[in-house]
From TrEMBL:
Keywords: Cytoplasm, Hydrolase, Lipid degradation, Lipid metabolism, Membrane, Phosphoprotein, Transducer, Transmembrane, Transmembrane helix. Residues 99-209 form the PH domain. The keyword Manganese does not apply. Residues 695-824 form the C2 domain. GO terms for biological process: gamma-aminobutyric acid signaling pathway; lipid catabolic process; phosphatidylinositol metabolic process; phosphatidylinositol-mediated signaling; regulation of synaptic transmission, GABAergic; release of sequestered calcium ion into cytosol. Residues 579-695 form the PI-PLC Y-box domain. It holds the Pfam family PI-PLC-X. This is Phosphoinositide phospholipase C. One of its GO terms (cellular component) is cytoplasm. The lineage of its organism: Eukaryota, Metazoa, Chordata, Craniata, Vertebrata. It is found in: Cytoplasm. The chain crosses the membrane at residues 23-44. Its main location: cytoplasm. Its EC number is 3.1.4.11. It comes from Cyclopterus lumpus (Lumpsucker).
Length: 1073
């Protein structure tokens, strides 16, 4: 056969030695399944003029992408993109950015008429103007002088963007605006990637500061802090290893270790290969494997410079090369949500993280020091305040979710898996507070623990109890519940009782309960005590052993259901009276239905629900299930048909208020990730306080709601997935060699209204430092029950593979720029594998109120939605609720007027929808300078409400800022002055209505209501009470929000040097987050 060069190129194994799935050609990745015709067509395409993009983006029509980004797309063929990644080019200095801008690139220009124009933008050679082509304007007019630029704004944060018909199609991370001229015109641009946008924003900001002398400044400095430190590091290494006789060289292995000391995630082979590659290019083949000073610095730059962190540093740096104490203080306050920050705080942080001696002495944080800080435990996504118990532990036991294990003794599957004491030890060390002990008659008269009707080997009960006694309170001091499933004869029950008394002794809680108690004791009151959950004999004057119904979760559920439906009593067995006496607070009873439980169940009694039954009840009677769990404990155990020990979704039951959802701790996966993460939020003590709406005596909450929750203010979560670091090859994956093509899913787990997921694009062939730069927004309707999960997968044509995950309750998120340590399938932390993200959440110091299309709080009073109360059909009660209409309307108006005014002020400041007022004022500070450099606007901080005062004639845009700020202050003042009176009115009406609660059914009967109408009246009453309580709380929250807003304005004005000089002025700090 004649030689075919195209076919040889496509034969990756023969020509390039690459894995079958991928072929490298011209520095790009090509799919081997690509047809010869398509590949030749690609080769014939001329490259664009920009050297930034050596290969034109080219999407193969024969490989369709899944448009909605859902996981269903994994089963389809993937999209292949032939574009080179800028992140590989390590553009990580202002000089790199400026050189790229001089070469130019195509950007999309957005106009007010929603038209989009593709233009080629570049800097002129003299670095004095921004030019574009083609243009209908004359060449001298198709340019903007850099001297006229007032601000470079990131995101879709100008009026042109907001009113554009293509707003939703524009990525927040690819958009930026140049504000210029005397009348503050805007040039609104969209790059084809977030990396290009970062390059232009960084370069323009640098040029604004240093003008045409920017490159001279850069060449003279060249990041002297880093260079000085690296030269010192190199010299010290040479001296310590006695290499001073060899000028300017150290051993290769020593150079590799120095780089790994800064970036421990990078592999030795990669660093060695880079050194040798560099030496090959320079034709410096060194047989003794030595590295020069210049080679060391260059390779260090390659492996230890993260462009995304450099772009962030430039954003906050006043001199664009390092952060001084004031820069760092502004970053900590505005982005990281820290309180009580001072220059001393910044200096202490610099001393801890800055690498160079010069930086520590001068109080400067270089790029390497900033990277060290951002990757430290201080910038972990998880709020360390939740590492200890931080919730009220004095509520009744039924008000908490309780970490629970199913068949704790198993370490494998249900049917024939191994049993081991280590199952109990592991669960208890993980903070589990409810373990299961299935006891059966054993040999030699000694009871054993095992699963009935299976082949799993037994354990001696004595050994199990000894392990429980030893480890019961190692991880938590709060009560441990032992679910005792008793299948023993009376003789061996006696032995079981003896073991319990001898081994657990005084730890067992056997105190008789107080008669007439409506609730169980609290976890705090039951510290260091062990509660037995099991069957208990009824009141018997003879005090003898008696019969009870058997509790056998291992038996087929259908047999028990048949017994109930046919009227046959469940199987019964003899129970030892001494064993019965040990069961006090958790007495097992059979569930019949919710009306029966409401009438006859005692708070000391607990129902165990088969998974299928619990899920059915959650779907059919979600409101009744929630109300049932306000007073009674409910335990849900997995379907016995889960012989592989798989897990149910705990949130399907948590949303109904079920406290004890038993999980197979030995089975890793999504469900255990959710369970483990959920119980971390309260010091991993095994108890988490349920949402308030599930605990209040009278409240309305439906577990299957797909809308907002009455009385709960939704929050807007903004997540930007910036980059990943050191992502390992999926375990067991060998098809692609060392190639990793990662992408990230961001999942929200909670009530049905909140459950959703979004995914980033795939970054090809980069597991070391893939840059995603994609933002997502989520509306969270019940924040107290929401969790966020980050999942990293490897994009493969055969099937995507799991790389790592991290799950965290929403309540534990820290705002700002954070690193996430990824975990393996089994929950272990992956060495050095992280995600870098930015998080902002409304009503926290890291963010403001929501304003987004589809989630806008900006409504005129005429179009405003006022919360409506429901008619019960009971005249006396309805009259009371009608009194609430005026204060509820007034509360809504006050709150939304304030929030609307803040949203308008935020827009004029040109910041994102989730920015707080500190970020607004700091952003404003960059554009209020007059021709002489003096500020045109200053804050007067003498009053409780800072005033914004003009310092001379103002352009129209700044006059609008002043008037909008005054409207915001006026609305805020109204909230502070009127909120307490409205709050008292609403609570008074609620209190009056609650007087009818106990006699509501009799009043309904007098009105002639029967059956379903009575149930609807009771439900409407709960709805109205929930609305009144919720609106009163929101009024108080609005007042606290105003106080926080004014403090942030005050602090930002001081930090940004936007204050009038005054005597006795001192910094006000916010104590809330």
């Amino acid at each position: 056969m004649p030689f075919n060069p195209w076919r040889s190129i496509l034969d990756g194994n023969k020509m390039f030695g690459m894995p079958k799935q991928r072929i490298l050609f011209r520095g790009i990745t090509v799919c081997q399944s690509l047809s010869l015709y398509s590949f030749v067509f690609f080769l014939l395409q001329p490259p664009p003029s920009s050297s930034l993009y050596p290969c034109r983006p080219f999407i193969l029509p024969l490989l369709p992408a899944h448009q909605d980004g859902s996981r269903a797309g994994r089963d389809r063929k993937k999209t292949v993109s032939f574009s080179s990644s800028l992140s590989e080019k390590k553009i990580s200095s202002a000089a790199d950015c400026i050189h790229s801008m001089v070469e130019g690139i195509e950007l999309k220009k957005i106009r007010t008429n929603s038209r989009v124009y593709l233009r080629y933008y570049l800097l002129d050679a003299g670095l004095q103007a921004l030019c574009w082509e083609p243009s209908k304007k004359e060449s001298d007019k198709a340019r903007i002088s850099l001297a006229s630029i007032r601000e470079v704004r990131t995101g879709r944060n100008t009026e042109t963007f907001r009113t554009s018909g293509v707003y939703e199609q524009i990525s927040e991370d690819c958009a930026f605006s140049i504000i210029y001229g005397e009348v503050y015109e805007s040039l609104d641009l969209v790059a084809n990637s977030a990396e290009v946008a970062n390059i232009w924003v960084t370069g323009l900001r640098y040029l604004m500061q240093y003008g045409k002398h920017a490159l001279d400044m850069l060449s003279s400095s060249q990041d002297s802090l880093r260079l000085g430190w690296l030269e010192q590091l190199f010299s010290s290494a040479a001296d310590s290893y006695g290499q001073e006789d060899i000028e300017e060289e150290i051993r290769l292995q020593l150079a590799v270790k120095l780089i790994q000391s800064v970036n421990p995630g990078v592999g030795c082979r990669k660093v060695e290969h880079r050194f040798k590659e560099l030496q090959r290019v320079r034709e410096r083949m060194c047989g003794n494997e030595r590295v020069t000073r210049q080679e060391f610095i260059e390779v260090f730059h390659d492996f230890c410079t993260r462009p995304e962190i450099y772009f962030l540093l430039v954003q906050f740096s006043s001199n664009k090369e390092f952060l001084d104490t004031k820069d760092l203080m502004r970053f900590l306050e505005a982005e990281q949500g820290m309180t009580q920050v001072s220059e001393e705080t910044s200096l202490k942080l610099i001393q801890s993280h800055e690498r160079s001696e010069e930086g520590r002495q001068e109080g400067y944080l270089s790029l390497d020091g900033f990277t060290s800080y951002l990757t430290s435990a201080e910038c972990h996504l998880f709020d360390r305040e939740h590492d200890t118990v931080c919730q009220d532990m004095s509520q009744p036991l039924s008000h908490y979710y309780i970490s629970s294990s199913h068949n704790t003794y198993l370490i494998e599957d249900q049917f024939r898996g191994l049993s081991d004491i280590s199952g109990y030890i592991r669960a208890l060390k993980m903070g589990c507070r409810c373990v299961e002990v299935d006891v059966w008659d054993g040999p030699d008269g000694d009871p054993v623990v095992c699963t009935g009707h299976t082949l799993s080997p037994p354990l001696a009960l004595r050994c199990v109890l000894e392990a429980i006694g030893k480890f019961a309170f190692v991880a938590s001091q709060y009560p441990l519940i032992i679910c005792l499933e008793n299948h023993c004869s009376l003789k061996q029950q006696k032995v079981m009782w003896q073991h319990l008394m001898r081994i657990l002794g005084e730890k067992l809680y056997t105190d008789p309960p107080y008669e007439g108690e409506s609730y169980l004791p609290s976890p705090y009151a039951l510290r260091q005590r062990i509660l037995l959950k099991g069957k208990r004999l009824g009141p018997d004057p003879d005090g003898e052993d008696g019969e009870v119904s058997e509790e056998d979760e291992g038996a087929e559920m259908c047999q028990r259901m048949k017994a109930v439906s046919s009227g046959v009593s469940p199987k019964r067995f003899q129970l030892l009276k001494e064993l019965s006496a040990l069961v006090t607070l958790c007495r097992s009873v059979r569930f019949v239905d919710f009306p029966t439980s409401s009438k006859s169940q005692n708070p000391l009694e607990l129902c165990s629900f088969h998974e299928s039954l619990a899920v059915r009840l959650a779907g059919e009677s979600p409101g009744e299930f929630v109300n049932h769990n306000k007073h009674f404990l409910s335990r849900v155990y997995p379907n016995p048909m889960r012989i592989d020990s798989s897990n149910m979704n705990p949130q399907d039951l948590w949303k109904c208020g079920c406290q004890i959802v038993s999980m197979n701790f030995q089975t890793a996966g999504l469900m255990m990730d959710l369970n483990t993460a959920w119980f971390r939020q309260n010091g991993n003590c095994g108890y988490v306080l349920r949402p308030a709406i599930m605990r209040q005596e009278v409240s309305y909450f439906s577990a299957d709601t797909r809308d907002t929750v009455p009385g709960v203010s939704p929050q807007l979560l903004h997540v930007k997935v910036i980059s990943g670091q050191n992502l390992p090859k999926p375990r067991g994956s060998g098809a692609k060699g060392d190639v990793v093509d990662p992408y990230v899913y961001v999942e929200i787990h909670g009530i049905p209204a909140d459950c959703t997921e979004r995914r980033t694009r795939t970054v090809t062939q980069n597991g070391d430092n893939p840059v995603f730069d994609e933002s997502f927004e989520f509306q969270i309707n019940l924040p107290e029950l929401a969790m966020v999960r980050f999942v990293v997968l490897d994009d493969d044509f055969i099937g995507d593979e799991f790389i790592g995950q991290y799950t965290i309750p929403l309540e534990c998120l820290q705002p700002g720029y954070r690193h996430i340590p990824l975990q393996s399938l089994t929950g272990e932390e992956l060495p050095h594998a992280k995600l870098f993200v930015h998080v902002a959440l409304t009503n926290r110091r890291g963010g403001g109120k929501p304003h987004k299309r589809g989630l806008s709080v900006r409504k005129a009073r005429k179009g405003r939605d006022y919360t409506a109360l429901r008619d019960l059909g009971v005249r006396a009660v309805d009259e009371v609720f009608k009194m609430a209409a005026p204060p509820l309307r007034e509360a809504t108006d006050l709150r939304e007027n304030m929030q609307n005014s803040v949203a308008v002020f935020r827009e004029l400041c040109g910041v994102s929808a989730v920015a707080n007022l500190m970020q607004c004022v700091l952003a404003l500070g960059s554009r209020v300078s007059g021709p002489d450099g003096a500020p045109l606007l200053l804050f007067n901080l003498l009053d409780h409400y800072p005033t914004l005062e003009p310092q001379g004639p103002l352009p129209d845009v700044l006059r609008r800022v002043v008037s909008t700020y005054e409207m915001m202050v006026q609305a805020s003042r109204a909230v502070m002055e009127l909120s307490d009176g409205i709050y008292d009115k609403i609570l008074q009406i609620q209190s009056t209505a609650m007087e009818f609660h106990e006699k509501l059914q009799s009043l309904a009967a007098k009105e002639g209501l029967r059956g379903r109408k009575v149930s609807r009246a009771l439900e409407s009453f709960s709805w109205n009470i929930t609305i009144l309580k919720g609106q009163a709380d929101l009024m108080q929250h609005a007042k606290a929000e105003v106080q926080e807003n004014m403090k942030q304005v005050h602090d930002a004005a001081l930090t940004g040097n936007l204050t009038k000089e005054s005597v006795g002025l001192r910094r006000v700090r916010s104590q809330t987050r």
